[in-house]
């Protein structure tokens, strides 16, 4: 009886709400409200997801869920709307007991078998502490464990596999489940306000958490007070989306800090946190101290099921609906999964099994699941690929190309340090971004999406702004659909470029279209070569057009400079002639990277230091010089690059930081120089007893080191470079015009410590640094208080970092061994 649904809770309507949002436009929602006698204008806020949330909250408060379900059946009769209610009875025998590629939901707990021991262990860890990280490979069943295992057990409090019951009162806990998506703080604010009717609450909380993530416990307490609940369990599923979907580092950090504050060991015991993490991203989590501390507290490793558990997961759901297995079928399935004796299936095999079972169920004969049905579907490891191909071959050639473009746009390539793809991850996308701009082509592409969605290969949803999203149904497709595997192999490089382009476009748009974010040089050339304009989104095309316009402006500027140089050459020959020749070459080949390299070397004025036998640059390498190398695609981005470019005009002349030893050597070699050795650096510094002792106040001044004034009598700004406002005379070398050896940032050298003998090896190349040795740094930075600022040869063990270390007070300067390259100094 639909009337029985009127007393359901708001939590049980999550799936219903998501389906309404993905299947109705705003205009259709208005008609639905009219059918229900609801004033649409009271709900209207602009974002579709918030409109739907307000509608569902309105319905629940007035006990009219049955009316909503009836209206939905009128508008979309093919959808099982009542079946989307979490916690409702299991589906009737006409509904499949196997979910296929999607995870089990809370309402399917009655057909969820095989993970009882893991559910018990997870609840036991929640008793012992308030945080648990569930780690496993893609396809290990983390999402199903949360929805059909953990949440069901907490609500029903059955006897668990270890003989215990869930905590007393867990049936009255407030349980919230979310995924980070591209806007983790927005999603967090949304689940915290789903019992409120005003969208303003969600917007305000998101804004406040962005600025003050430690305020999360306050909002949780307010939620618990409103709902009169004793405890919150927050489940953050697919936690890896924080790294694959969220591109804003500030938002990522704020989200992590917020969660850490919620379950800090010193905080009040009113909330618990469970995260589900794909094991490949464990290392990324360790980069954040707050996450590292949480992970040290409690982890649950979700491994493959054994033979007994798999047998239960296969047999019991079918038996619960009165289905029977043809003798030999279950054993055949287990054998094909590679399960025999103590052997377990390969990691990530569960979605393959679930999809095969769904295919067998669809080919059942009466109430019998047959070997013939399994044979028709294909081997358990082949069913996913066969099902995808069955759909693909029905498409026209043009539609097939659309399908290829769609799937490649929904996959993210995760590289290792050598640039080789090690894993593919799902990437949720805005559907309109993947559709052509031309109306007829867009309609045809949308029909492909609908076909793939109907066959459970794609999943539709919506983001906080109400935009329709699309994602691949499961990552099992990426390795078990041979056609897609081939596409990935062919397109890996263009996919990498596309990912970088997307990130750069986001940065450009977030900066207010700051031209410093645009592509130039070889970056721009590669995008033009690898990505046809027809494959670009509207925002990507706008970015490309702006980059091309900037390139043309740069060329025209260079042409003007060349004309000026030609006039000068008529009066003065020699060096200016070489400059003219260089400018001419730049224009002839349109090679901005050559121009950038020329500028980067020219701005790094060298001073010959006889004591060291090398020429030192007067100052540390600046953000501006390093960015020219990044734009030329010869250098890696520094960590914290967004912060550098977001205030470009203010920061461009400050020392670049967030670079490791290899980054530093890479830049120096790009301009034909190298890093100093520790001996060369030490020979350049003043006598140790003359190093200044910095106070905290003095050190604080150096946080804004800048390069502004000409130095050395008679030198011009262009010929010498610039100097810092924060100048310590005793931090200058005995050789004139080598500045800021102390008091600014510490500096990388190329000297490393041998791991077997602890001896200093003076010179290193990039290959040696890639092995992550301890590399010596020199010149204590602005962060060193109450100590002698400088480098002590005697304490070399305390002045070395692993080569891949990055710090906010660690930069570098380059040196040249060619005395002829020096135009100023000793």
UniProtKB/TrEMBL annotation:
Limits of the Effector-associated domain: 16-77
Pfam families: EAD7, FGE-sulfatase, nSTAND1
Domain (Sulfatase-modifying factor enzyme-like): residue spans on this chain: 601-815
Highest rank taxon of the organism: Bacteria
Keywords, comma-separated and alphabetical: Membrane, Transmembrane, Transmembrane helix
Ranges that cross the membrane: 575-596
Residue ranges annotated for the Novel STAND NTPase domain, each copy included: 97-515
Protein name: Uncharacterized protein
Species of the source: Candidatus Promineifilum breve
């Amino acid at each position: 009886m639909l009337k029985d649904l009127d007393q359901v809770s708001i939590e049980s309507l999550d799936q219903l709400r998501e389906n309404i949002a993905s299947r109705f436009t705003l205009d259709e929602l208005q008609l639905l409200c009219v059918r229900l006698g609801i004033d649409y204008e009271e709900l209207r806020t602009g974002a579709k997801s918030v409109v739907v949330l307000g509608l569902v909250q309105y319905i629940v408060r007035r006990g009219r869920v049955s009316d909503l379900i009836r209206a939905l059946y009128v508008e979309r009769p093919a959808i099982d709307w009542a079946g989307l209610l979490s916690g409702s009875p299991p589906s009737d025998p006409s509904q499949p007991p196997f979910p296929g590629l999607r995870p089990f939901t809370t309402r399917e707990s009655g057909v969820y078998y095989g993970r009882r021991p893991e559910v018990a262990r997870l609840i036991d860890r929640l008793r012992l502490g308030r945080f648990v990280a569930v780690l496993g490979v893609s396809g290990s069943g983390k999402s199903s464990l949360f929805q059909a295992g953990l949440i069901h057990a907490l609500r029903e409090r059955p006897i668990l596999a270890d003989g215990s019951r869930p905590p007393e009162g867990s049936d009255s806990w407030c349980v919230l489940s979310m995924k980070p998506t591209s806007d983790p703080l927005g999603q967090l604010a949304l689940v915290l306000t789903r019992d409120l009717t005003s969208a303003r609450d969600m917007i305000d909380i998101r804004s406040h958490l962005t600025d003050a993530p430690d305020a999360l416990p306050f909002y949780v307490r307010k939620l618990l007070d409103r709902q009169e609940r004793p405890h919150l369990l927050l489940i953050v599923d697919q936690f890896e989306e924080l790294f694959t979907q969220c591109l804003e580092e500030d938002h990522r950090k704020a989200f992590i800090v917020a969660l850490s504050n919620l379950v800090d060991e010193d905080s009040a015991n009113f909330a618990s946190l469970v995260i589900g993490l794909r094991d490949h991203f464990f290392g990324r989590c360790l980069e954040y101290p707050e996450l590292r501390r949480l992970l040290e507290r409690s982890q649950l490793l979700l491994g493959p099921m054994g033979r007994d558990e798999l047998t239960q997961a296969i047999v019991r759901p079918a038996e619960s609906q009165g289905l029977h297995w043809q003798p030999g079928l279950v054993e055949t399935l287990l054998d094909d999964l590679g399960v025999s004796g103590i052997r377990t299936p390969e990691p990530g095999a569960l979605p393959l099994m679930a999809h095969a079972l769904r295919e067998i169920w669809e080919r059942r004969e009466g109430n019998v699941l047959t070997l013939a049905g399994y044979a028709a579907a294909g081997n358990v490891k082949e069913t996913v690929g066969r099902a995808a191909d069955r759909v693909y071959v029905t498409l026209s050639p043009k539609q097939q190309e659309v399908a290829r473009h769609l799937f490649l746009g929904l996959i993210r390539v995760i590289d290792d340090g050598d640039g080789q793809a090690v894993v593919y991850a799902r990437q949720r996308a805005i559907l309109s971004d993947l559709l052509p701009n031309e109306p007829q082509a867009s309609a045809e592409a949308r029909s492909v999406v609908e076909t793939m969605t109907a066959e459970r290969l794609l999943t539709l949803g919506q983001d906080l702004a109400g935009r329709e999203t699309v994602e691949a149904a499961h990552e099992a497709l990426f390795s078990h659909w041979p056609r897609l595997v081939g596409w990935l192999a062919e397109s890996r490089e263009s996919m990498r470029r596309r990912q970088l382009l997307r990130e750069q476009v986001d940065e450009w748009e977030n900066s207010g279209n700051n031209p410093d974010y645009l592509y130039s040089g070889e970056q721009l050339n590669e995008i033009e070569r690898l990505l046809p304009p027809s494959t670009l989104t509207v925002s990507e095309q706008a970015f490309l057009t702006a980059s091309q316009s900037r390139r043309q402006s740069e060329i025209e500027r260079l042409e003007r400079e060349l004309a000026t140089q030609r006039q000068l050459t008529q009066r003065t020959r020699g060096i200016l002639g070489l400059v003219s020749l260089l400018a001419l070459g730049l224009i002839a080949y349109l090679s901005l990277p050559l121009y950038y390299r020329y500028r980067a070397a020219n701005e790094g004025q060298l001073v010959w230091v006889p004591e060291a036998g090398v020429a030192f640059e007067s100052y540390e390498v600046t953000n501006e010089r390093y960015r020219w190398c990044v734009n030329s695609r010869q250098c890696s981005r520094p960590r914290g690059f967004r912060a550098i470019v977001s205030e470009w005009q203010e920061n461009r002349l400050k020392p670049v930081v967030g670079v490791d030893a290899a980054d530093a050597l890479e830049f120096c070699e790009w301009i034909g120089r190298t890093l100093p050795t520790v001996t060369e650096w030490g020979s350049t510094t003043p006598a140790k007893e003359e190093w200044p002792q910095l106070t905290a106040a003095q050190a604080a001044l150096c946080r804004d080191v800048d390069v502004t004034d000409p130095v050395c009598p008679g030198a011009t700004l262009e010929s010498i470079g610039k100097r810092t406002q924060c100048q310590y005379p005793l931090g200058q070398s005995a050789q004139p015009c080598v500045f800021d050896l102390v008091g600014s940032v510490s500096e990388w050298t190329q000297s490393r410590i041998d791991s077997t003998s602890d001896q200093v090896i003076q010179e290193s190349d990039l290959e040696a640094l890639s092995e992550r040795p301890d590399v010596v740094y020199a010149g204590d930075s602005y962060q060193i208080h109450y100590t002698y600022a400088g480098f002590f040869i005697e304490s070399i063990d305390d002045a070395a970092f692993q080569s891949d270390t990055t710090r906010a007070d660690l930069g570098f300067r380059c040196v040249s061994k060619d005395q002829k390259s020096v135009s100023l100094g000793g």
